[in-house]
Task: inverse folding
């Protein structure tokens, strides 16, 4: 088992909701814009560990296919782990992001009805202009940009929230979002996006 763990880094998310996804405010208790939630998210770990195993610098991708409100569960989930990760790091990340390792993501274990599997793949998570890009060859081609604030200044943010990602979420829109894997073929471009700096830990 993973033991004590910590992830500090950046997370971007793209989903099929109209801008802006209601989950951040309603904490997943309301219907997604189109009744179901099709989403992928990407995580870059600036600093992390699981026990004595370093997770620094690794990238992770997650598929979530949810048939209704986030908080009602029945999620189908798949995980993509950076090909640079050691076997021990890949196992730890699988336990953390499936909820088995407890802590911040422990509630995932209650919500996931079908864990589709784990793939070791090359993953690119990069800043691009004011936004971010996330790519897994032949699977995810994504880019999100923040929504400008008043008078085109700064960005629009939700602050002091109890949302699962973190207390401050930047409101974004996907400028490119294509997902193809596990029998899903989603074109999410133009839909809602989110960005947050995360600091998760367990157990």
Result:
């Amino acid at each position: 088992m993973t033991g004590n763990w910590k992830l500090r880094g950046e997370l971007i998310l793209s989903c099929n909701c109209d801008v802006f996804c209601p989950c951040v405010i309603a904490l997943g208790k309301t219907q997604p814009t189109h009744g179901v939630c099709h989403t992928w998210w990407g995580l870059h770990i600036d600093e992390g560990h699981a026990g004595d195993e370093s997770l620094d610098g690794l990238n992770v991708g997650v598929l979530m296919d949810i048939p209704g409100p986030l908080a009602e569960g029945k999620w189908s989930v798949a995980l993509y782990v950076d090909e640079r990760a050691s076997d021990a790091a890949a196992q730890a990340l699988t336990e953390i992001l499936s909820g088995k390792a407890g802590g911040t993501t422990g509630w995932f274990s209650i919500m996931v009805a079908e864990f589709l599997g784990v793939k070791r793949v090359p993953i690119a998570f990069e800043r691009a202009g004011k936004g971010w890009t996330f790519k897994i060859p032949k699977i995810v081609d994504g880019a999100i940009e923040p929504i400008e604030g008043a008078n085109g200044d700064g960005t629009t943010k939700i602050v002091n929230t109890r949302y699962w990602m973190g207390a401050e979420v930047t409101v974004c829109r996907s400028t490119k979002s294509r997902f193809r894997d596990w029998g899903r073929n989603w074109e999410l471009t133009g839909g809602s996006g989110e960005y947050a700096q995360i600091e998760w830990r367990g157990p």
